[in-house]
Amino acid sequence: MKINVIQENLQNIVADGLIIGIHQGVKSLPSILEMLDEVMKGTIKEIIRSQEFKGKEGELLTIRSYGNLSANKIFLLGLGKEEEFQEDTLRRVAGEGLREALKQHCERVAVAVIGTKNISVKNQGQCISEGAMLGLYKFDRYKTENQQVTREMQEIFIWHEGQGAREAIVEGIAVGKSLAKATITARDMVNEPSNVLTPYEMEIRARRIAEEHGMEINILEKEDMEKLGMDCFLSVAKGSDIPPKLIVMKYRGDDQQEEVIGLVGKGLTFDSGGISLKPGAGMDLMKGDMGGAATVLGAMEAIGALKPKTNVIAVVGACENMPSGKAYKPGDILKSMKGKTVEILNTDAEGRLVLIDCISYAIKLGATKLVDVATLTGACLVALGTTTTALITNNDDWLEELKKASAKAGERVWQLPAFPEYKELIKSEIADLKNVGGRYAGTITAGLFLGEFVEDKPWIHMDIAGTSANEKTRGYLPRGATGVGVRALYHLVEQQ
Ligand code: BES
Ligand code: MG
Ligand code: ZN
């Protein structure tokens, strides 16, 4: 899909469709639409005057042009109230509007946002591009030819009347495209079934990202991990016949700087629960238990493409959690790379075991600040639902940075408490820690378990169990994987 700038008079634009974004509460025809309305014989003016179209966020009204225009259809698209209009509103309505335009057979569509002052021209270009690419995304590669939806958006023209707007929009488009492409990389991995997206396939995709952007990549095999004493990670992987992979990617954006941001991702390509087997219903969703890893690799792609001036290393632990004669068992006691021992009470609390060894390795490689991302607990869905990512931290300044970055991406995050009382719940009678903290506060105890391994480093844990995939299409998030966190982590790195 191409995205370009267009500055022609609206009535002269050659395209299949013309999306005109209008704010709620506009009572008369905006003057910039006068010439278009004239060609349309007063139709738009009448629709706005009669309040047939009110401009509520996401509202869409289709007008046929009956040959009066080159475009077959005009879509009036509601932007909502101007004072409530934010960058994420623009992403959402752009995604929804373009999806509808495509549904109505428009493959070349111009988008004009009328009367918006609170978003810079560059950011308008960026948000429309993000909203378009993310909103039009579909995962249909397993539909055989004659079942595939063949219609695809070919080209989008972002319209702006402003003199000199072209350059700013072009800049915005470039950023938006890179961020959306990286998010789609993550979505594809999460949507892919576990028979395709094995740890080995994750390695291949990670190598592709590293190669494309000239980043260093290292893969640790089982034997390498044995030498490092990663008994926790390896025990989770033991039940599967597919070998685990530890993927390390390095980005150097500033050699003068000592800070290295460590991004750590949970990459369970399938989580059956292991010997503590999960119930059958819904188990298919556990193909997406590598969502944290996908987010981290997607963020690395965005970082590689946009080249912020910071140093980053990514550590992703990829394996399967399966029951078998070789699997680890409840009651086992494992030694982590860091040396602390863990009593296993439930083999389905496996993500934290993989993550602690990855965190230790990230620190060994020089990470000075950490963010881990994981589909870690079902309890997270109970606490915050499907729209908000849970955060746990040991450092409020670092947390503020991530909150700011998430807001830029239009993503909801919420901090959970990390009071010392919760740590009591993961102390074991016979080892240093146990891998489950009981029935209550499951997201917090899981997070604090990881916190035991971050040493003195500023650290944030993101539990994306609820936000990594959607049951229903919403805004620029089509059903299935969302790619949550990819853009937020990019902004976090870029802000430093
Ligand atoms: N991968 C799951 C968490 C999960 C659940 C992610 C639902 C996405 C949707 C994780 O490995 C897990 O099984 N957690 C257990 C922990 C429990 C055994 C302490 C859970 O949440 O039930
Ligand atoms: Mg599990
Ligand atoms: Zn899991």
Can you tell me about this structure?
This protein has 15 helices and 19 strands. The protein has helices at 34-39, 43-49, 87-103, 121-135, 165-191, 199-213, 222-228, 231-237, 291-306, 351-364, 379-384, 396-409, 420-424, 442-451, 486-495; strands at 2-6, 17-22, 60-64, 73-78, 108-113, 155-159, 216-220, 245-252, 260-271, 311-321, 333-335, 341-343, 369-374, 388-393, 412-415, 433-434, 459-463, 469-470, 480-481. The longest helix has 27 residues, at 165-191. It is an alpha/beta fold and 496 residues long. Strands 7-8-10-9-13-17-14-15 form an eight-stranded mixed beta sheet, with helices on both faces. Strands 1-6-5-2-4-3 form a six-stranded mixed beta sheet, with helices on one face. The mean pLDDT is 97. It folds into two domains: 2-161, 3-Layer(aba) Sandwich (Leucine Aminopeptidase, subunit E, domain 1); 180-495, 3-Layer(aba) Sandwich (Aminopeptidase). It is elongated. Zinc ion binds at residues 268, 271, 289, 350-351.
